[in-house]
Structures are given as structure tokens and as C-alpha cells.
């Protein structure tokens, strides 16, 4: 399988779409836009997994594609939307590093990944090489997003983007065992993180209320 | 067989001391057992030396690391050091039987004392690096625990912390040294290390780390700082072993690596060791000269004597590398002789200091005085020890320093110009150190044992008689000082056999004139016979006594004794330790220690006395250790901030590390 074959070109296109979505995440200024971009990335990932399942003739990858489609492209974005509205989180992205610099860093990371992966995997199949470089860029950009954004929701999105990169790497390599298990485990992890944030915010809010109550009560008795 | 049995006895005694609790009989039994076990080891060492080069028995025990058994071996060098260690150990153990009664925290000492002896002997017998280091740590930690035995005093705790840091540093250096010698193959037996060929840089690092590691334990300047703190903090019989013997075990490690395992050290290292030794000798004795604490004075004097021995070793390396095995053997015999001697008289002096402390409870010279009348045994033994350490003939200290000086006189014959000029300088430093040591011990002995008591405790010293075990030990060691000086040829012949494998030449110091004359270079260049000196001296003394008693008048005359300008009832008018050393403080103190004297005069009409106060700094602390401590604190402060970062901060650190390593990988891949 090499350049010019339809399976290679399509896989390359979908992988590049995942990476583009990753870069797109970096320059969003509003939280809803971030979540929508993430949903798009998850959709692309599901397409990548499905295409690989078809090309590699590996039906278990359809499970990965399904998890990605249902959980990441639908449930998580909806849940995040609901959380933001319910908890009244400030809706603009708070950056720790200006967007221009972040984009440049992201491009530099992509260059680094390509420089790194292509020589190392000189003997591997062409598809694996390209996909690994793409996947590694996605992972690094996810990490970059976790660092350069202050808000907890954007950090969770960054983490999930990182995880998308890992899954992309896993589905692209032929004969990779435990891909399904890995994707399930990561999804559970992300769910736990979301619930963690949710409960943390709730408890924070009620704790504050409780303390206010106590202070008001003492004020009344005087 | 005897050795294995004795070592096992030591370990069992330690267990017994833990189990049997804190009754006085336990402490006495343990110390007596230690004496018996050390005696066994001493006999084994002497037998091995006495039989001569009859091979070196070795034994492999299934101990230690699973893939490597524990190797032990007894050759001439370890036998010599075993004699040195166990001679002092027998003395200290017997002394301990009587002494342990006076110790406030004896139950914190007894369990570790046998372990300490075990560790020192095991270092000498070890034939692989793993056992060597394990035994070395046994020695360090057991002695550390005994330093900490009187842990209620803040000063002792400070000493223990410094000691622990320096011990860890030393072991780390030795570990590096052995690791480099073992090489990539990782065979840690000494037999394999002897065969190994080292490249230039590892060979240099091996010697450097060995000098740092063993030097820090031996107390070479500037790594000596823990020694004057830790040695006095331990109980006196332990101080005696730490100062008299443990420093020698460190020198054994140095000799073992430089002359046996490495075996091919370039002359530059000899020069470096001579400079370090000379600096240790002069600085050590200068420190000692200004001390008021009796035990700390003795500890600083150890720094000096280790320096003297190291001069001998360094000269040996230089001569050996220059292809002069006979002179190398002479220098080494001198160095080893000094090691033997110092272990005897330093043990004796520390034991005497212990007797003084247990009788008076006073360690400061300014609180002692007039003890010779009140403690005649201790006073006489300490006099012999002080004369020996000041290198007065016919005692043992003179012989070894004389031999080293004889070797130094041949130094200008070395081919390198640095050595031609440098050796006489080191010789001058050695001579200066010898003269200052004599001053130092005239001062220590004169202030502590002569004159009038400077405190009530010193005046009442005769109310606490010294136990028999302590008195006899000191007497035996004092006799040994005389004996080792009286039969120098016997000693040098034994040492020549030890030195032979190191230089590859059998060299008899007495070759020219024969027993009992030492003639190291030639019969016309310089010769000495302690034996003749003792015999003639005794004879002259006897004749003088007979003449004085036979010809002198029997009439008794009474007159006032000259009171040296001070009244009997005011001991403050005597010379003090400070005033005795003041001229030397003026000469050396202002430049080396930046000493400043200030006089506070009372206002006219006021009746208070004028006060003279002296402020001195320790240059080693100020210039070397304080900056290191500040740097460590500075870095620790910076690192401490890393505990309080945000999640993003930690992620950033991980991310930058990852990217950095990826960059390194990408860079390494470029063709």
C-alpha cells in the first residue's frame, strides 16, 4: 500500500483531517466552538477507525469507530454543553499564551513529529509511517492545549484530543492488539474526569452556600 | 579459622548486648569478649606476619549478593593492618571494662562496639569491592551511632550530622572508584581488578575518587572537618579507636587501591599526595595548638599524623614511578611505621584523656592542672605518649619520622624538576609540623598534668581512683611505645616484607650495618639505633643515679621552692593554655586563621579586670564548606518552589521534558 492507492490516500486524508481539527482547537476563542471542533475531530477519528477496519479487514476496529462516534462525537459534547450552561461557566477561552504563538508552537510540534517519526520508521509500511507522524502531532497538540488554556473544560478537551491521537496511532498500525480495550478504557477515564469536574463544581458551590448560611445565622442571633 | 571464629564472636557479642539488657555485668562481659576476640585476631595477624611470605589464605563464603559470593583474603598488608587495629582494639576493650562504668549512656555504646571492631576487621579482610564497602559502612555507621550515644548535647548532634554527610560522601567516592575499576564487565573481585587495564581518564578518576573517599575518612585537609567534631563526641575508648585506628583503616583502603588494585599510579599523584599530606600535617598541628578541649586537640593531632603518613605514601608513589624501588620501599616503610606508631600513642593519649575526664569530669585544659600528683599512672603513661608523639628519641615516633625524612632527603634525586624543588619544601613542612607538634604536646601535658589545679574538680581528681583495667592498659601501651622505638630493626624487617609486593623489591633498611642499626641510605649517610640509645641511656641514667646517691650528701636541707612567680593559692596566675600558645598564634594565627585580638580596658576607677578576647575563623569552613552549604540551600529553595505549582505548571514541565527528549532523539538521528 503506497501513495496513489485509494486506501492509502483516503487514510491519509482522514488522518490529516484529525490533525487539522487538532490545530483548529488551538485558535477557538469560545468554549462552545471548542466543543464543536472536538466533536468534529471525534467524528473524523471514527471515520479513520472505520476506514481502517474496512481496509485491514479487522472487524473489531468497527467497535472502536462506534465508541468514538457515539461517546466522543455525541455524548461528551452534549454533556459538556449541558455542564457549561448548568454551571454558568464563563464562555470565552482563557488563554495563558497568545493564540498566534500557540499556533506557531503547534506547527513546530508537527514538524518535530515528522522529523522524528519518518527516520525512525524507515523500514515500516508507508501508511504506518505517515499515520504515526500524524498521530504523534495530535498527541503533542493535545498536550499543548492542556498547558496553554486555563479553563478546566478546555483542559479536559485537550486531554481528550490527546487521547484521540493515541487511538489514531493504535488503529493505523496493522495488527495492534487490544485497540478496543484501550479505547474503552480511555473513554471511561474521560467520563470519570468529566464527572470529577462536575461533582467538584457542585460541591464547591454548596460548600460556599453552607458557609454563607452559617454566617448569616450567627449574624441574626446577635 | 581463628579469624572466622573471632569475627563471629564479635557479631554474637553485639547480639548479646542487645538481648541482655543494661546491667553492668553485661557491659563488662561484652567488653571482655571484645578483648578476647581482638586478641584472637591480633594473634592471627602476628602469626601471618611472623611466618613471612607464606602465601595468602583466602576463603569464599556464601554471603552477600546472590550472584557473587563474599571473598576474603589475608595477605601481608591486611595482616599488618589487622595487627594495628586489633592491638588498639584489645587495649580499648580492656580499658572499656573499667571505663564503661563512668559512661552516662553506656547502653547506647555497648551493642555497637563489637560491630565497630567487626567492621574494621572485615574491611581489611575483604577481597571484593562489595564486601569492602559493606564492611566500610558497618564501620562508619557503628561509629556514627556511638558518636551519637550522648545525643542530648546539641554539639554532639551537630557533630553526628557532619560526620554522616562526610561518611556518605566518602563511601560514594569509593563506590565510584571501585565501579570504574570493575569496568563494564562488572567483576567486583579484587583479583579481577588487579588484572584489569585502565584507560587514561578512568585511571585518573579511580585515583581521584580513591583519594577523596579514603582521604575523607582518614581526615586529610580539607576533608578533615568532621574528624575534630566527631572523634571527641564519642566515649573515650571509642574515640581512641576512631582516631587511632579507623583513620588507619582508611589509609589501608588508599594503599590497597593505589598500590595493589590500580598498581600503576603516575608520579604526579605522588606529588599531590605529598602536598596534601604536608598541608594536613602543618594545618592539623596548628589547629591542635590552639585548642582548649583536650580530646579535640588530640583529634586535630590525628590530622597531623595522618598527613605525615601520607607524605610517606606519596613519596613512595613518586619513587616507584621513577624506577627507584629501593627508595620507594624506604618511604613506604617509613609511612607504615608511622601508621603503626600513631595507632599506639594516639590510642594511649585518648585513653589517658578518658581517664582524666572520668576522674575530673573536665575536658577543657583551662579547668585542669596538677594531675600528675593525683593520677600518677595516667600522668606517667601520658608523658611517654606525649614524648612519643613529639618524636623524641628513643621512642617510636622518632624512628618513623626519621625514616620519612631520610627518604625525603633523597627526593632531589628524582628526575622531575617539580619534585627536585618540591620535595625539600615538603620536608620543611614536615620538620615544621614536628616542631609544632612538640610545642603542642608540651603545652597539653604541661597545662593538664603539671602546675596547680585550675578547678575544684581537678583538685579532687584523687578521690576518683582510676580502675585497674584502665591503668594497666595505659601502662602496657606506654611500654609498647618504648619497645617499638627500642627495636626499630625488627619492625622495619617485618614492614619490608609487607612492602615487597608493592615495590617488587626486598629492601632491608638495616642492610649495611646489620642489627640493631638502621642505615637506610648507606652506612656513612645516616644511621640510627634505638636499641643502643635505650641501652646507653639506661646505663648512663643508672650511673647518674648511683653517683648522685653515692657521692651526694645525706644532709636534709629545707628551703622555699621557687614558685615561678605565682602564689600557690591563686592558680589563675599560672600560664594557661591560651597564653602558652599566644606567641605562635601571633605568628601563624593572623595569616592562616585571621586571628584578631581585642583588649577591653576598664574605665579609670572601675575595678573590673581587663579582658583579652581572641576571634579566629576556620579557613576551611569559610572558604570551602560555607559556600557549598549556601549553594545547596539556594538550590533546595529553588527546587522547593516546584512543590507548589499549578496543574498546568506540572504539565508544562512534563511537556517541555518530552519535547526536549524528542528533540535530542531527532538530532541524534541526523546522518
TrEMBL record, chain A:
InterPro entries linked: HyfE-like
Record GO cellular component, one term: plasma membrane
Origin: domain of life: Bacteria
The keyword Kinase appears for this protein: no
Transmembrane region(s): 6-27, 34-54, 60-84, 96-118, 124-145, 152-172, 178-200
Hydrolase listed as a keyword: no
Keywords: Cell membrane, Membrane, Transmembrane, Transmembrane helix
Protein name: Hydrogenase 4 membrane component (E)
Organism: Magnetospirillum molischianum DSM 120
Automatic annotation (TrEMBL), chain B:
InterPro entries: ComplexI-like_HydComp, NADH_UbQ_OxRdtase, ND/Mrp_TM
Any one Gene Ontology molecular-function term assigned to this protein's record: lyase activity
Signal peptide: none
Subcellular location(s) of the protein: Cell membrane; Membrane
UniProt keyword annotations, A-Z: Cell membrane, Lyase, Membrane, Oxidoreductase, Transmembrane, Transmembrane helix
One GO BP annotation of this record: ATP synthesis coupled electron transport
TM region(s), chain numbering: 77-97, 109-126, 160-181, 201-226, 271-290, 297-319, 339-360, 381-405, 425-451, 472-491, 528-548, 650-667
Domain NADH:quinone oxidoreductase/Mrp antiporter transmembrane: 126-410
Topology of this chain in the membrane: Multi-pass membrane protein
GO CC terms, sorted: plasma membrane
Name listed for the protein in its UniProt record: Formate hydrogenlyase subunit 3/Multisubunit Na+/H+ antiporter, MnhD subunit
Taxonomic classification: Bacteria, Pseudomonadati, Pseudomonadota, Alphaproteobacteria, Rhodospirillales
